[in-house]
């Protein structure tokens, strides 16, 4: 249980975000009244977003309570290994800035399924819309609620479902009322609060341990020096050797950062192409931080527990004479044991920031997808007010469904691995049709449709066999490697069907692929340090150095 002062700080923070979200959304709504598109103002902030807001909002939507809780858990269990998910994202964000964002802005689409229809056909659009809604519910909302519920239950002693329902309702109100403007304004604030909170716990853990060298000495004494390595050899017990990272992450990452509506919606709301390019690159630089402020504290927690300076007895259970640590609660223990009162309230506010920003971003993307890609598709004459109303209703329904899935997802031992395991089976066909659609002129509409259908079906079958079937060869394949295998299968399908059903380009689709990768670099961009080419090279060099240092 935490001190009254900390509870007060947390309550004041929630109230402040609620008021700011409503104010920002209603203010923008009033300004957009009488404009040519009230729906565009609601769902895409009137396409007025600038690069700092886009970058911060991308990061806030990505980093949720799941990351604070589960990355600390992974740091405790396997060291810096899962930091690969954070640093590899920088390379994919460069791809988004260089190759994907220009097409999205030039095509003037409101959703990514809309983009697929222009590049392929309506069947591809419908399928992606449904998959995007499902993934937003499970990946972006349910897992965040699960992580947040675990923390709030441990800290406040409140039933997990009661606490997450309360936070969800508060977030849903300002998101549904205010639209994307409310989302990005609150996300920008929440990103700063989240980063400050994470830095505080990192400094506290570092100080308690006595620095880097004492931590290394403890790891050496316990034969756990491999926890400092991000590149693991073949057969590593983690199931994520170095080749799995380099083969599998791009498949997951391109879907997540370049083809997932929840994330890319911030880019679609950009003021112009330059802002759409620089925003993701800004996010890429921020993504350097999570390894040091989310993963590393978990590793410090491990060494602190080994030296008796962090009491983890409450997480330990004895099974068949063996002591087992349920590390899901390690972040909560760090908060309560390493921080004085007052600072605990700030950390709780940071956790709530991650939870609320993830929920708000996902709800906004769901309402956009349902309104534009499902409802308007069947009722082309629907008014802006009708589209907004449908979006609000769909967001409310999605939240209820997300809450209902929590018991199923709680069965995963590691929240972070469970999240990425699901993504690994969803992403391959979507990554395939986007990559081939943008870089291969001969990718046909029929091939995209069949790739999405067959690839998604095979992904579900493989996932089901792996989870419910007997131990088999499939169960022994790391999920990152399985994602690569499924992607290769999807590429083969799309190439074959593109040969069987040759492409017949429309006036729109003829403009939506790069005739050469270098074509995307023809836009000179801003001058000076803010040039997207300069920033891309700088970010890539920094990430290569970091991977080399922590190899």
TrEMBL record:
<feature type="transmembrane region" description="Helical">
    <location>
        <begin position="192"/>
        <end position="209"/>
    </location>
</feature>
<keyword id="KW-0472">Membrane</keyword>
<feature type="transmembrane region" description="Helical">
    <location>
        <begin position="54"/>
        <end position="75"/>
    </location>
</feature>
<feature type="transmembrane region" description="Helical">
    <location>
        <begin position="422"/>
        <end position="440"/>
    </location>
</feature>
<dbReference type="InterPro" id="IPR038377">
    <property type="entry name" value="Na/Glc_symporter_sf"/>
</dbReference>
<protein>
    <submittedName>
        <fullName>SSS sodium solute transporter superfamily</fullName>
    </submittedName>
</protein>
<feature type="transmembrane region" description="Helical">
    <location>
        <begin position="127"/>
        <end position="152"/>
    </location>
</feature>
<feature type="transmembrane region" description="Helical">
    <location>
        <begin position="387"/>
        <end position="410"/>
    </location>
</feature>
<dbReference type="GO" id="GO:0005412">
    <property type="term" value="F:D-glucose:sodium symporter activity"/>
</dbReference>
<feature type="transmembrane region" description="Helical">
    <location>
        <begin position="87"/>
        <end position="106"/>
    </location>
</feature>
<feature type="transmembrane region" description="Helical">
    <location>
        <begin position="6"/>
        <end position="26"/>
    </location>
</feature>
<dbReference type="GO" id="GO:0005886">
    <property type="term" value="C:plasma membrane"/>
</dbReference>
<feature type="transmembrane region" description="Helical">
    <location>
        <begin position="278"/>
        <end position="302"/>
    </location>
</feature>
<feature type="transmembrane region" description="Helical">
    <location>
        <begin position="240"/>
        <end position="258"/>
    </location>
</feature>
<comment type="similarity">
    <text>Belongs to the sodium:solute symporter (SSF) (TC 2.A.21) family.</text>
</comment>
<keyword id="KW-1133">Transmembrane helix</keyword>
<feature type="transmembrane region" description="Helical">
    <location>
        <begin position="164"/>
        <end position="185"/>
    </location>
</feature>
<feature type="transmembrane region" description="Helical">
    <location>
        <begin position="532"/>
        <end position="550"/>
    </location>
</feature>
<keyword id="KW-0812">Transmembrane</keyword>
<dbReference type="Pfam" id="PF00474">
    <property type="entry name" value="SSF"/>
</dbReference>
<dbReference type="InterPro" id="IPR001734">
    <property type="entry name" value="Na/solute_symporter"/>
</dbReference>
<feature type="transmembrane region" description="Helical">
    <location>
        <begin position="447"/>
        <end position="465"/>
    </location>
</feature>
<feature type="transmembrane region" description="Helical">
    <location>
        <begin position="477"/>
        <end position="497"/>
    </location>
</feature>
<feature type="transmembrane region" description="Helical">
    <location>
        <begin position="343"/>
        <end position="366"/>
    </location>
</feature>
């Amino acid at each position: 249980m935490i001190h009254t002062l900390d509870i007060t700080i947390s309550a004041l923070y929630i109230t402040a975000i609620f008021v700011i979200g409503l104010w920002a959304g209603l203010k923008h709504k009033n300004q957009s009244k009488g404009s040519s598109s009230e729906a565009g103002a609601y769902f895409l902030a009137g396409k007025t977003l600038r690069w700092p807001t886009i970058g911060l909002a991308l990061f806030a939507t990505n980093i949720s309570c799941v990351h604070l809780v589960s990355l600390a858990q992974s740091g405790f269990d396997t060291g810096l290994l899962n930091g690969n998910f954070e640093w590899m994202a920088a390379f994919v964000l460069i791809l988004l800035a260089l190759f994907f964002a220009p097409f999205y802005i030039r095509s003037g689409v409101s959703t990514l399924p809309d983009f697929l229809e222009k590049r392929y056909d309506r069947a591809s659009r419908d399928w992606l819309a449904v998959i995007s809604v499902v993934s937003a519910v499970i990946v972006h909302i349910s897992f965040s609620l699960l992580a947040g519920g675990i923390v709030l239950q441990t800290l406040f002693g409140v039933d997990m479902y009661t606490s997450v329902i309360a936070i969800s309702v508060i977030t849903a109100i300002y998101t549904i009322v205010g639209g994307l403007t409310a989302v990005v304004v609150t996300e920008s604030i929440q990103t700063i609060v989240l980063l400050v909170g994470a830095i505080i716990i990192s400094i506290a853990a570092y100080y308690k341990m006595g620095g880097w060298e004492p931590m290394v000495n403890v790891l050496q004494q316990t034969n756990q020096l491999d926890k400092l390595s991000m590149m693991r050899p073949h057969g590593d017990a983690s199931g994520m050797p170095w080749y799995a990272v380099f083969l599998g992450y791009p498949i997951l990452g391109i879907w997540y950062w370049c083809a997932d509506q929840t994330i890319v919606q911030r880019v679609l709301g950009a003021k112009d192409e330059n802002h759409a390019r620089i925003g993701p690159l800004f996010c890429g630089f921020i993504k350097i931080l999570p390894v040091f402020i989310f993963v590393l504290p978990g590793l410090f927690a491990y060494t602190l527990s080994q030296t008796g300076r962090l009491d983890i007895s409450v997480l330990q259970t004895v099974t068949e004479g063996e002591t087992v640590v349920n590390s899901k609660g390690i972040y909560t223990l760090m908060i309560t044991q390493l921080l004085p009162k007052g600072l605990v309230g700030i950390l709780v506010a940071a956790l709530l920031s991650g939870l609320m920003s993830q929920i708000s971003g996902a709800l906004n993307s769901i309402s956009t997808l349902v309104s534009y890609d499902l409802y308007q598709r069947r009722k082309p004459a629907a008014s802006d007010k009708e589209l907004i109303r449908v979006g609000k209703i769909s967001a409310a329904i999605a939240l209820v469904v997300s809450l209902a899935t929590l018991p199923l997802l709680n069965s995963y031992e590691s929240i972070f691995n469970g999240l990425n395991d699901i993504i690994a089976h969803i992403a391959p066909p979507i990554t395939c049709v986007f990559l081939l659609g943008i870089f291969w002129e001969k990718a046909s509409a029929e091939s995209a449709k069949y790739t999405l259908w067959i690839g998604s079906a095979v992904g579900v079958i493989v996932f089901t066999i792996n989870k419910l079937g007997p131990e088999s060869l499939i169960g022994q394949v790391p999920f990152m490697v399985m994602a690569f295998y499924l992607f290769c299968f999807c590429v083969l399908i799309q190439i074959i069907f593109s040969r069987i059903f040759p492409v017949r380009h429309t006036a729109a689709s003829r403009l939506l692929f790069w005739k050469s990768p270098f074509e995307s670099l023809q836009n000179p961009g801003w001058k000076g340090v803010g040039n997207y080419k300069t920033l891309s090279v700088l970010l890539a060099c920094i990430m290569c150095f970091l991977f080399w240092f922590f190899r």
